[in-house]
Write a structure and sequence with these properties.
Structural class: alpha/beta
Strand order of the largest sheet: 3-2-1-4-5-7-6
Helix content: 40-55%
Number of domains: 1
Strand content: 15-25%
Bound molecules: S-adenosylmethionine
CATH topology: Rossmann fold
CATH architecture: 3-Layer(aba) Sandwich
Largest sheet: 7 strands, mixed
Length: about 280
């Protein structure tokens, strides 16, 4: 089965698909397990009133709106996305959230950002790098546009860290491994972020794993797992009978209140070196 990853280039998707993708981002941000992950991201970025903040790969702008609350009244958040369609949708959400004077939008490619060097106090990319063929190029751009002393933050999940309580280990491993390696971009991106950030000019690079736990049918991870089963069945990696057995057990454990699944997101933070400061990582080599 050839799988097209619409997140890597939404402009190739039709407008209805883009609306559905934007609605999925908004809905996901309301799920309890994603609220926890997004709060950890905001804490890592630590926006301060008056700052200029950039998000690259902003999608529907849900994180820009959250960060905007930290920089008001005079600070600004800029959301950049490769898709003008997403930006139009993001603009509508911003108007209804009454944040139009704090957030601005720009179409652009993460690999060649349309900004001068050192334009921002803080920059971030969330759930973007897993969809990018050359993440190092994006990270170099993030570092270029953040000011000396400013912060860069990246975040992705690592789908191979999924733990799910299911009686059929072999089937569970088979479908999760296939989903991890064949669907939705580079699902090992999370564990690769630290090395990629450490390879830039950033200093004091730190990684924080966030374990996101799902217990309910409306948690974002739960929905991802049902989807994983569907794509594995459609990819002929599991049979229709195995699909039915696997999801039936999940439905039963959800109904019984015993469902457990988790996944690790990695948030990596670094600072752009100030002139004349000591970089302990490269000094210790
Ligand atoms: C999965 S969404 C994440 C949206 C948002 N950061 C969030 O966490 O809700 C990924 C976004 O990255 C955008 N994108 C993909 N490739 C890009 C690129 N090369 N440059 C800029 N944006 C890109 C997509 O259009 C999409 O809106």
């Amino acid at each position: 089965m050839s799988h097209v990853n619409n997140w890597a280039n939404p402009s190739k998707a039709n407008m209805q698909d883009v609306y559905n993708m934007a609605a999925a981002l908004e809905e996901r941000a309301q799920a309890l397990d994603q609220i926890q992950v997004n709060e950890a991201l905001v804490d890592a970025l630590a926006p301060v009133a008056g700052e200029q903040v950039l998000e690259v790969g902003c999608g529907s702008g849900v994180l820009c709106r959250q960060i905007a609350l930290g920089v008001v009244p005079v600070g600004k958040v800029t959301g950049v996305d490769i898709s003008p369609e997403f930006l139009r949708i993001a603009q509508d959400y911003t108007a209804s959230a009454d944040l139009s004077t704090t957030i601005q939008w720009g179409a652009g490619q993460a690999e060649v950002l349309p900004f001068r060097d050192a334009s921002f106090d803080a920059v971030f990319a969330a759930r973007l790098l897993l969809h990018i063929s050359d993440p190092q190029a994006v990270l170099n751009e993030l570092v270029r546009v953040v000011r000396p002393g400013g912060r860069a933050v990246v975040m992705d999940w690592d789908f191979d860290t999924v733990a799910i309580d299911h009686s059929d280990r072999e089937l569970t491993r088979r479908l999760l491994h296939w989903r991890c390696d064949h669907h939705g971009g580079n699902n090992w991106s999370g564990r690769q972020l630290w090395g990629q950030m450490a390879a830039t000019e950033l200093v004091n690079v730190k990684a924080a794993p966030i374990v996101s736990v799902a217990h309910h049918e409306y948690d974002s991870l739960t929905l991802s797992l049902f989807k994983a089963a569907r794509v594995a069945r459609d990819g002929n990696v599991i049979s229709p009978g195995e699909y039915d057995a696997w999801v039936d057990e999940l439905r039963s454990s959800l109904a019984a209140g015993s469902f457990f699944a988790s996944i690790v997101y990695f948030i990596v933070v670094g600072e752009r070196k100030k002139e004349g400061t000591w970089d302990f990582q490269s000094e210790l080599g």
